[in-house]
Amino acid sequence: MEKKAIETEKIPLTFKPSQFKLHTFHSEVADRRIVYQVIKMLTSTFICVNYENELTFSDLSLVLTNNSNKPISTQLIGNFSEDSTKNMGMRLCKKLKKNIYLSCNVNNDRFTLPLVEKQLVMEMNKCPDKF
């Protein structure tokens, strides 16, 4: 069998700047500095919350918008029996009206998480173009 050479035309590559927008801000909760990193994408937003000196990635929830007013969520990484990150992600999803990836790697207690969410909402109100 004879192999035929396939000629391809060379198409020049054009590099475009990333459409992702990165936003970082900080807050203090219980005498600990917390860093918030936000990546704004076209139809979704990735939010990662960590203690400043303990950058980890041990928790990740995905929340998707749908036609009804009730987003759907799932835990991708972390404690599958704990719903606090998913619930926070659902509230943020409703506010932003877009899909949310939320990685919240701070103490999961009744004091820390509400303050983290409050800070996120304040930042969303202050800089809506970053989310």
UniProtKB/TrEMBL annotation:
GO terms of biological process kind: proteasome assembly
Pfam families assigned to the protein according to its UniProt record, in alphabetical order: PAC4
InterPro entries attached to this UniProt entry: PAC4
Provenance organism: Pyrocoelia pectoralis
Protein name: Proteasome assembly chaperone 4
